[in-house]
């Protein structure tokens, strides 16, 4: 009795993920590789020798097309002809060129970056993929599987936890985008965390993150005392970062035109949230500005200039100050966490005031629409308390 053909439905074929050859019958198989790649093959015997003939990748080659190609080869074998002479129809043989992961990534970034206000964010997307996911770039996006994603993530998962976590999320979004565009199946995303990579990689929250090491707030006064004894623009900039609880980039890009009396107005285009932020300047913060004003205070001049004329110092310049102070266990950004924890533990300031001081978004969009105050007066009181606490001897 002949082999039963047409065992699968198109839906069943699309759902197959288990590695191995899955028979449709009549010699036609859907081959699923451990990498996640799937393709059709026809297995027959010619002159007593086993022959396996590839019919193209799935889903670029549909179930119906694969069956038609298998039928032509089957007839050729029955007639004693060379099965390779009965190649698949042009539609199957000349399947369209598969979109690569790199092409999918480029199109996704191009479609999204108009909405990304931060130029650094755009650059990070491209540089992270180029640096750590180069092995995926030329691979057809339809063939990217869990093993491919793990090969990219595992080398940096424990050593560069923050970068690895962001990279995983970016790969996941690109693969989802490719599925929407029809370049790969809408099955389980091989870069998805829950129920997938979470079973193979340690949870990111349990790893040491190198970017947000925070100093206990009780240690900040002694640190500031030591920092006050250091000379140089970078040391003054770091002191200003701690006093204002501002982001490093906001301080490094600060110009004299943003300062009016004892208020620092950071324009919306320099803020992560895209909204202007006012920072009340305390006496110690003003003392730092007075020291920097000796270098010149033209409105368009950087308050903390870098070594190259007109260019801000790099973030690594501030990190270098910490290294020279033998404080490699903490980061510049971590002082914002020190301030936040101190506010919660040692003051009566509300969550809204604390979040406003850190220039964080205030809850959901509806809450933000009803709460347009930046709590400036209360924030001034809070920053005065913080300055008094961290500059005490």
Descriptive overview:
The chain is an alpha+beta fold and 393 residues long. It has three domains: 10-93, Integrase, DNA-binding domain (Double Stranded RNA Binding Domain, 2-Layer Sandwich), CATH 3.30.160.390; 101-206, DNA polymerase, domain 1 (Orthogonal Bundle); 217-390, Orthogonal Bundle (hpI Integrase, Chain A), CATH 1.10.443.10. It has helices at residues 10-15, 63-78, 90-93, 101-112, 119-132, 146-153, 161-180, 220-228, 233-244, 248-252, 283-292, 315-324, 334-346, 351-357, 365-370, 376-390; strands spanning 20-25, 28-32, 38-46, 49-57, 259-260, 263-266, 277-280. Helix 14 (351-357) crosses helix 16. The protein starts with 9 loop residues before the first helix and ends with a helix. Mean pLDDT is 83; it is low at 89-95, 206-211 and 363-371.
* Content of β-strand: 5-15%
The major pleated sheet works out as:
4 strands, antiparallel
* Broad shape: elongated
Helical region count?
Answer: 16
Alpha carbon gap, first and last residue: 95 Å
What is the level-2 CATH architecture name of the largest domain?
Answer: Orthogonal Bundle
Report the order of strands and helices.
Answer: HEEEEHHHHHHHHHEEEHHHHHH
Query: Strands across the major sheet, in which order?
Result: 1-2-3-4
Tally of discrete structural domains: 3
Top-tier CATH class of the largest domain: Mainly Alpha
Number of DSSP E strands:
7
CATH homologous superfamily designation of the largest domain: Intergrase catalytic core
User: How big is the Rg?
Assistant: 30 Å
Structural class: alpha+beta
Give start-end ranges of low-pLDDT stretches. Answer: 89-95, 206-211, 363-371
Average pLDDT over all residues = 83
CATH topology of the largest domain: hpI Integrase, Chain A
Residue share in helices? 40-55%
């Amino acid at each position: 009795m002949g082999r039963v053909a047409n065992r699968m439905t198109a839906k069943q074929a699309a759902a197959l993920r288990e590695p191995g050859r899955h028979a449709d019958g009549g010699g036609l198989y859907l081959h699923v590789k451990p990498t996640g790649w799937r393709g059709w093959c026809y297995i027959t015997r010619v002159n007593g020798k086993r022959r396996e003939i590839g019919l193209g990748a799935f889903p670029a080659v549909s179930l119906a097309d694969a069956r038609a190609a298998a039928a032509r080869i089957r007839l050729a074998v029955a007639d004693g002809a060379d099965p390779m002479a009965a190649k698949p129809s042009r539609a199957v043989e000349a399947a369209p060129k598969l979109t690569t992961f790199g092409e999918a990534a480029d199109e996704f970034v191009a479609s999204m970056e108009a909405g990304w206000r931060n130029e650094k964010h755009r650059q990070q997307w491209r540089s992270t993929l180029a640096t750590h996911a180069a092995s995926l770039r030329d691979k057809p996006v339809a063939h990217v599987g869990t093993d491919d994603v793990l090969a990219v993530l595992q080398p940096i998962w424990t050593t560069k936890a923050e970068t690895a976590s962001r990279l995983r999320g970016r790969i996941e979004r690109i693969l989802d985008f490719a599925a929407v565009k029809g370049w790969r199946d809408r099955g389980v995303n091989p870069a998805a965390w829950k129920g997938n990579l979470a079973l193979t990689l340690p949870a990111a929250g349990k790893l040491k993150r190198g970017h947000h090491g925070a100093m206990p707030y009780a240690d900040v006064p002694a640190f500031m005392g030591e920092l006050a004894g250091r000379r140089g623009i970078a040391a003054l900039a770091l002191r200003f970062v701690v006093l204002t609880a501002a982001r490093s980039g906001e301080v490094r890009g600060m110009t004299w035109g943003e300062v009016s009396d004892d208020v620092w107005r950071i324009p919306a285009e320099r803020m992560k949230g895209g909204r202007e932020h006012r920072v009340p300047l305390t006496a110690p913060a003003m003392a730092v500005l007075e020291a920097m004003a000796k270098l010149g205070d033209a409105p368009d001049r950087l308050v903390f200039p870098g070594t190259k004329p007109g260019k801000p110092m790099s973030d690594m310049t501030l990190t270098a100050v910490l290294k020279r102070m033998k404080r490699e266990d903490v980061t510049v950004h971590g002082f914002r966490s020190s301030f936040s924890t101190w506010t919660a533990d040692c003051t009566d300031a509300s969550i809204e005031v604390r979040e406003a001081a850190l220039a964080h978004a205030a809850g959901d969009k509806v809450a933000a629409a009803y709460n347009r105050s930046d709590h400036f007066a209360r924030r001034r009181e809070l920053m005065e308390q913080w300055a008094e606490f961290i500059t005490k001897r």
